[in-house]
Write a structure and sequence with these properties.
The complex is a heterodimer of chains A (261) and B (215).
Chain A: H1 9-12, E1 19-30, E2 33-44, E3 48-52, H2 59-65, E4 74-79, E5 82-83, H3 89-96, E6 98-101, H4 113-123, H5 129-142, H6 158-170, E7 176-180, H7 188-203, E8 207-211, H8 215-221, E9 224-229, E10 232-237, H9 239-244, H10 249-259
Parallel strand pairs in A: 3-8, 3-9, 6-7, 7-8
Antiparallel strand pairs in A: 1-2, 1-4, 4-5, 9-10
Helix pairs in contact in A: 4-5, 4-6, 5-6, 6-7
Chain B: H1 2-6, H2 8-40, H3 45-59, H4 63-77, H5 84-110, H6 113-121, H7 126-156, H8 168-177, H9 182-213
Helix pairs in contact in B: 2-3, 2-5, 2-7, 2-8, 2-9, 3-5, 4-5, 5-7, 6-7, 7-9, 8-9
Classes of the chains: A alpha/beta (261), B mainly alpha (215).
Family (chain B): Belongs to the binding-protein-dependent transport system permease family. HisMQ subfamily.
Main location (chain B): membrane
GO molecular function (chain B): transmembrane transporter activity
Chain lengths: 261, 215
């Protein structure tokens, strides 16, 4: 494998012919802090892109701009060929097609596990309760928490909650799934059960953008790794290239720090 | 004791008057207050401005002044011929709605933002997010302050007595004018108010316990 030029990576990246998520020259500030600087990024259908980088590099913000939980100051974001709409019904419709999994799970605390997974289907997709229930149970079984369907989220372990959150997002039949540090709030022994569900999703061809510190997941499941630092995309490469032969000093420095132990 | 027994119909009229003014105003204030709270947290700036203006204006105006506006200005400008009862309910409920709004808003603020973000990320509209996810979880925190607001409303309704409404405080005035010992009159009026306010706090305590279980 020959190292690719830093700037041209986006263009050679796998399957860019069929782009699902496109960020074009995106900028965002938090006050004086320029958290996203001229971000260009394309995610093709079926591609798994893992975004890594040090804390405060803007990777979570990047993930949250894709369904407009964070607004941007300038630039353009397109999903499936359509630009992100302003606040309102159009935006709600688009968000239904973009699944999101949060670091802190954010399951609806006053609803049972089953209701968490059916609510979006009945209220947003307008499915019948019976159909939504059936689909929800199927998904809960798939992520391995079918037996917990009638419990409240607080009665579940972190790993179980996060798997319910994944099922909740999948119930909307999204075109793309965003994962914002899905394992960062989990106890170590629960990380794998969540990663396995994500691995399975990746194998099934789901388009995924995953912000994570799990280098193992990046190596095994990603089609492409994006390394961010200080609000910029510093490097973009296949996992093999990135982990064995990082080109930028910033990435080398980062990897040396995390792979030491 | 005589004051009460000799004037039972007058007391009853006053009691029912206070009860009905309080209940009608409470209902309208609750609905209005929740709607205005929705405005205050809405993504649409004009709605937020409206909500802020509503609260600022009504919460900071003396209630008596609102009564004066309702009874002497409102009929001239907008709708002539409204009964004193309706005017009093309007003044009381609008005034109270500003306090309800702020209590509800503080309840909304106690719900983790992640809950709303998760709802939005599923494609729920603002109204759905608020009514299905945020408000149900805010209710528990709102109950205690809401109880105080409703008790204050009960006592505030006494002002309506000075504006040609039959209610307990008006009863007191009538009886005093009739020459009864004011000490006994006050005692029975106070007991009547306490019956209403204790019922309200009891009801809210019950609600608090009920909602404490779910979840």
């Amino acid at each position: 494998m020959t190292p690719m030029g830093e700037v041209s990576v986006t263009k050679d990246a796998a399957g860019a012919a069929d782009p699902l998520v496109v960020l074009d020259n995106v900028n965002k500030h938090f006050g004086a802090l320029h958290v996203l600087q001229d971000i260009d990024m394309t995610v093709a259908k079926g591609e798994v892109v893992v975004v890594i980088g040090p804390s405060g590099s803007g990777k979570s913000t990047l993930c949250r701009t894709i369904n407009r939980l964070e607004t941007i100051d300038s630039g353009r974001i397109e999903i499936d060929g359509k630009p992100l709409p302003e606040e309102g019904r159009e935006l709600a419709k688009l968000r239904a097609d973009v699944g999101m999994v949060f670091q802190s799970f954010n399951l609806f605390a006053h609803k049972t596990v089953l209701e968490n997974v059916t609510l979006g289907q009945t209220k947003v997709r307008r499915k019948s309760k019976a159909a939504a229930d059936e689909r929800a149970r199927e998904l809960l079984d798939r992520v391995g928490v079918g037996a917990q369907a009638d419990k409240f989220p607080a009665q579940l372990s972190g790993g179980q909650q996060q798997r319910v959150a994944i099922a909740r997002a999948l119930a909307m039949e999204p075109k793309v799934m965003l994962f914002d540090e899905p394992t960062s709030a989990l106890d170590p022994e629960m990380i794998n059960e969540v990663l396995e569900v994500m691995q399975q999703l990746a194998r099934e061809g789901m388009t995924m953008v995953v912000v994570t510190h799990e280098m193992g997941f990046a190596k095994s499941a990603a089609n492409r790794v994006i390394f961010m630092a200080d609000g910029k995309i510093v490097e973009e490469a296949t996992p093999d290239q990135f982990f064995s032969n990082p080109r930028s000093d910033r990435a080398k420095d980062f990897l040396s720090k995390i792979l030491q132990h | 004791m005589n004051v009460l027994l000799d004037n039972l119909p007058l007391f009853r009229e006053g009691f029912i008057g206070t009860l009905s003014l309080t209940a009608a105003s409470a209902l309208i204030a609750l609905v209005l207050g929740v709607v205005i709270a929705g405005c205050r947290v809405s993504p649409i700036p004009p709605l937020r401005w409206f909500g802020a203006a509503w609260v600022t204006l009504l919460r900071n105006t003396p209630l008596v002044l609102l009564f004066v506006v309702a009874f002497f200005i409102l009929p001239k400008v907008l709708f002539p011929g409204m009964s004193p009862y309706v005017l009093a309910v309007l003044a009381l409920s609008f005034y109270t709605s500003s306090f309800v709004c702020e209590a509800v808003r503080s309840g909304i603020n106690t719900v983790d933002v992640g809950q709303a973000e998760a709802a939005r990320s599923l494609g729920m509209t603002f109204t759905q997010t608020l009514s299905l996810i945020v408000l149900p979880q805010a209710t528990r925190t709102v109950i205690a302050p809401m109880s105080s607001i409703m008790i204050a409303l009960t006592k505030n309704s006494a002002i309506a007595g000075a504006f040609s409404n039959a209610e307990l405080f008006g009863t007191q005035k009538d009886l005093s004018d009739m020459g009864y010992n004011i000490l006994f009159v006050f005692f029975w009026i106070a007991v009547a108010f306490l019956i209403i306010t204790f019922s309200i706090s009891g009801l809210f305590r019950l609600l608090e316990r009920k909602l404490g279980v779910a979840r």
